[in-house]
Predict the 3D structure of the following.
Amino acid sequence: MHTEPDSRYPLVDALGAAEDVKDMDNDGLRALAAEIRAFIIESVTATGGHLGAGLGVVELTLALFAEYQFNQHDKLVWDVGHQCYPHKILTGRRGQFPTLRQWRGLSGFPDPQESPYDTVKTGHGGTSISTAMGFALAWRGRSEDAGRKAVAVIGDGSLQEGNAFEALNHGGAYKDLELVVVLNDNNMSISPSVGALSAYLSRARSSTWLNARLRTIQGAIRRIPRIGDEVEDVLQRWYHSLQGIIPQHALGIIFEELGFFYYGPIDGHDIDALRHAFRATHWMRRPVLIHVVTRKGRGYQDDIPDTTCYHAASGKLVAGAGAAEYPEQGGPSFTAAFADRAMAMVERDPRTLVITAAMLEGTGLVKLHQRFPERCIDVGMAEQHGVALAAGLALAGFRPICAIYSTFLQRAYDQIFQEVALQRAPVMFCLDRGGVVGSDGATHNGVFDIAYLRCLPNFVLMSPRDTGELAQMMELAATADCPTAIRFPRGSGAKPDAQLAHVPFAIGEAERVADGDDGCILAYGPMVYAALELRRRLRTASGRALSVVNARFAKPLDERLIAAELARQPMVFTLEDHVLAGGFGAAVLEFARANRLDANRLELLALPDRFIDHGQRSEQLGAAGLDLDQLFERVSARLAAVQPVKPVRLVTGS
Ligand SMILES: Cc1ncc(C[n+]2csc(CCOP(=O)(O)OP(=O)(O)O)c2C)c(N)n1
């Protein structure tokens, strides 16, 4: 795309094709790196987005593009994809950065629809080695593809995912696979990396000085005529043979044992070193792992030792016109309400333990972790292990709470099935970011959890209308003798003084929060407040009075109440922030059909069968036909079709 010249970023503006960097010398690349960094800081602090990860890989990205041919020949797969901003700048998208993560704007993650340089659309971590290996395996043994490299760049956090280890195990067994794994080790996930692997990498990092010496020798040898680069491989082997005097951890022995040629650790901000390493892979016809050490967020507030604070920037921009915001927000966030209640439960009951998978910040658990480090366990980016661990703890008599985003819990599905549901282990899942999530977009929308959990026997599924009810549901789940899952959305709920009264309830009990007999809305979770607002608008516009039910449970349903509404209402709507297939409305429909109730009077209002891109939540709901204006039109039209307008009647609960 054409970009307006901007004198502050002359080198960035002068970039044409990504391949242009091949013509630049290393001093030129260093100057370009400084500009890219300044550009990202200015741009991302304005729009919001992932700041630290991209800043950490500026030199790495330039060196990769300088040494490989990613468009036609080689393939590049970024793990998670949140570090792809320098990649996007290099590949012609610099001009779109003012629209980053906004509706119809530039995605914050790789997306092949944006550019052929983006190999896959990602946002979840731990999969890059497998995907890259897929390309390498497809090319393997084909003479026309010899020399093509499939490159995966994976962070030390994402390397903790079981999937990454499965890929190393499999990939290392092929001696002739042209797979290059670049381990981008910054000792950080979102917060500092945890676990034994992290400790191992820390020890390996301490040996970067050895490699600096090695490079000095390499430089000298490269200057010898007719020997050149080819000896680097030999030299690296020689270096490895120094096992007697070099500590084992400095040699990447884990990766070597898994069948990868280990190269590193090298300084990931040193363009010369990076280019040497990547160039060396060109004549290696085998799996290689290059260990690079970077600083997350480099160039931005370098004096702050803990880079957690700028993993993501929230941005100053609040864009977006059109879609009406939902009412009754502005109260405490669901995340904060969850964390407060979890703290109270941990304080009160020694059997309560909270487990999170590298998401202490996102799930609001930082304080709890500081106060009770033994009772708030961060397992690292390892959702599968976290869930199976919770199951084991539950079977051993503890009351574990698994705090994992709806979207990331997908990674642990089989553990949910076998270790939790099949054993009827009383694990409480607290699924933050249930529903569309805004600027992270399709990879992060938590819109499938009702479907993937509802089909499993033994589970109780619930969703609170507000933060007060979230606390009630957590208390209920803490005494259940089966697995439970509580989904709640990103962002704030209704303000405490605007919340409906909270009365005690049992599993499977819904509540009617407004009465009327011109129709009924069965709403799930915070959609209850949207339903009440719809009711108000309809009342004003046409005098119709709807009943509104806070369903509370998607499993088990409050069958008595739902059957009563289906029997007495001309039309019953279900409303949820989840896909139609398998969701709450689908549960109501199944119930109606199974009990020979009139399903023709049911209309399901839910997300459509397509992925919803990044934007504000209100824009995403608007695109799905679920913003208040469209809901009003849809419900009005349906009601008008089933019965004439009745005179206004006074109803209770309005
Ligand atoms: C399966 C999965 N779990 C959790 C996340 C949330 N998440 C996004 S980035 C990140 C940290 C990644 O750390 P690392 O791979 O080391 O990359 P860095 O950000 O340090 O560059 C986490 C936990 C995710 N994207 N995918």
Q: What stands out?
A: Confidence is low (pLDDT under 50) at residues 317-324, 645-654. DSSP finds 24 helices and 19 strands in the chain. The two ends are 54 Å apart (CA to CA). The first strand starts at residue 49 and ends at 50.
